Amino acid sequence: MKRTIRLFAIIALMIASVSAFAQKPFAGKITFEVAAEGISDPNIAAELAEQTVEYTVMGNNSRMDLSIGIDMSIISNGNAKTYTILFNIPGYGKYYIQQKAEDIQKDQATKKYDYKYTGEEKTISGYKCQKVIMTATDLETDEENVMELWVTTELGLGDDINFYTHPNLKGYPLSIKQTQEVNGEMITTITTATKITPDKKVKSTLFLMPSDAKSFEEAPAELQQMLGGLGGDDEE
């Protein structure tokens, strides 16, 4: 009897361990390749063709780090429902612009998001994706923005990973195609995942505000002018 009880205890422990592992949210890096169509300037087109963007994702959160003369991070925290642009500027320090949950909710209330799940499928970077047509309608102007998304549910990311850009979308987009007017030209951009790398070392603190960062409103006037007056209307 004791042997049987021990056996059941071991099996129960194994099942619990597997369940706990399966429920752990995906964490890792996703590298996207950027392509553009409709650009008349061949130099800009060639430059864009060489661009890649890397996101670090975990559960409901994502972060993109880039360097364009200054170090900048864009952090989407689906747990806290905040969207933050973080600047790390030599000689000045760290400053941030942040939209909080109430600001995002207020903005999204003026828009309507419709998703058409087409059932069409293809594989991107080893993950099965479904084609989804997203139509975002500005309720004040009736202007529509249509995107073609290829969405996977196989990564196991959180339900709120898209809360800022694609609210209530089921799954995570590994390809996004959209057409917008830029300086009088209709430009189509296509962003597609080319590499997905799981990384168990990703920490949840990566998606939090650094303790030494200050609001952009506190930045010196010359810094605000240098960055084009960013953040003037983002916080009330």
Fraction of residues in helix: 10-25%
Number of helices: 4
Strand content: over 45%
CATH architecture: Clam
How many domain units? 1
| Average pLDDT | 83
SSE order:
HEHEEEEEHEEEEEEH
| Main sheet specs | 12 strands, mixed
Backbone structural class:
alpha+beta
Would you state the CATH class? Mainly Beta
Spatial order of strands in the largest sheet: 7-8-9-10-11-1-2-3-4-5-6-12
List keywords for this structure.
4 helices; outer membrane lipoprotein receptor (LolB), chain A; 12 strands; 46% strand; 236 residues; alpha+beta; single chain; disordered N terminus; disordered C terminus
Describe the protein in words.
By secondary structure, the chain is an alpha+beta fold. It is built from 4 helices and 12 strands, in the order αβαβββββαββββββα. It has one domain: Clam (outer membrane lipoprotein receptor (LolB), chain A), CATH 2.50.20. It is 19% helix and 46% strand. A hairpin with a 2-residue loop joins strand 2 and strand 3. The N terminus and C terminus are likely disordered.
